[in-house]
Write a structure and sequence with these properties.
This protein is an alpha+beta fold. The chain is built from 11 helices and 8 strands. It folds into 2 domains: 2-89, Beta-Lactamase (2-Layer Sandwich); 115-280, Reverse transcriptase/Diguanylate cyclase domain (Alpha-Beta Plaits, 2-Layer Sandwich). It has helices spanning 2-6, 10-14, 18-21, 24-39, 86-114, 124-141, 155-162, 164-181, 205-220, 239-245, 257-272, and strands at 44-52, 58-69, 75-84, 145-152, 187-192, 195-201, 230-237, 278-280. Strand 1 (44-52) and strand 2 (58-69) form a beta hairpin. Helix 7 crosses helix 8. The N and C termini lie far apart (83 Å).
Length: 281
């Protein structure tokens, strides 16, 4: 059985030292256990180890070793048994790989379900979930959360003039500009059509307007078939103010309803006052 396991004939196997058959990475642990056996610290041990075959292949074995001692307790010899567990290890490795592939597939599906296919930004549904999460986090921390709503100015005219394909390219360029204009902690999504929403954690009104102005300016400098501009509305959710006003937990609708509506009102003001500007409320 040992000859079949190690791929050697009896004479060759008897000429080998057992340690020479053990994979170097497993030899140290195995040697430590043998020393513990010889010193009487333990009576037996069991471990999984890799063993080398003459053809360069590896086998996995379950090594069980026990010490046989005299009546006086002196070590007489070791009894060792190796069970071939290569198939089990291969099966476990295959199952682990399948599990990893499944997790990756699930992650991909989650990404597809939460991302806008055109721009790669969060979609409206995912944005709604993040708004609720960020409001809860801001309320727990007692920190402000800024809402910035952007809308492309005269985007219908751009589509009519250059076609929807060029309109899609413009939307992707704007989305990229939004990502480059904001911070790593900020949440960006396509709220619908030519509307985009930024959620800026731990950001007061002054800083939120600065980020919105920087984003507006960067969009205006994009190299498109015709210049495009954006209008922006800013509203900052303050947990203590919302709680005092009874708006932290609206009686009807989700928690983000009030701050989102306020950002939309500010956006309407920006549109009404000439577009290509930022208004806050």
């Amino acid at each position: 059985a040992a000859c079949r396991l190690f791929g050697q004939d009896e004479a060759a196997l008897l000429a080998r030292h057992f340690q020479s058959l053990t994979h170097p990475d497993d030899l140290k642990v195995q040697s430590c256990h043998v020393i513990e056996l010889a010193s009487g610290e333990i009576d037996d041990f069991q471990m999984e180890a890799r063993y080398l075959r003459p053809d360069g292949g590896l086998i996995w074995g379950l090594l069980s070793v026990a010490a046989v001692r005299s009546e006086a307790g002196a070590l007489r010899y070791f009894v060792a048994q190796i069970q071939d567990i290569s198939n089990q290890k291969s099966l476990i490795a295959e199952l682990s790989q399948r599990k990893l592939e499944l997790e990756q597939a699930n992650d991909s599906l989650t990404q597809l379900a939460s991302r806008d296919p055109l721009t790669g930004l969060l979609n409206r549904r995912a944005l709604r979930e993040r708004m609720a999460q960020e409001i809860a986090a801001a309320t727990e921390r007692g920190t402000p959360l800024a809402f910035v709503m952007f809308d492309l100015d005269h985007f219908k005219d751009y589509n009519d003039a250059f076609g929807h394909l060029q309109g899609d390219i413009a939307l992707r360029e704007v989305a990229q500009s939004l990502k480059q204009s904001t911070r790593a902690v900020d949440i960006i999504g396509r709220f619908g059509g030519e509307e985009f929403l930024l959620l800026l954690p731990e950001t007061d009104a002054v800083e939120a307007v600065q980020i919105a102005e920087r984003t507006r300016a960067n969009v205006a400098e994009l190299s498109l078939l015709h210049p495009l501009t954006v209008s922006a509305g800013v509203h900052v959710f303050h947990p203590e103010v919302a709680a005092a006003d009874g708006a932290a937990l609206p009686s009807e609708g989700p928690a983000e309803t009030v701050p989102l509506a306020q950002a939309d009102i500010a956006l309407y003001r920006a549109k009404h006052r000439g577009r290509n500007r930022v208004e806050s409320i």
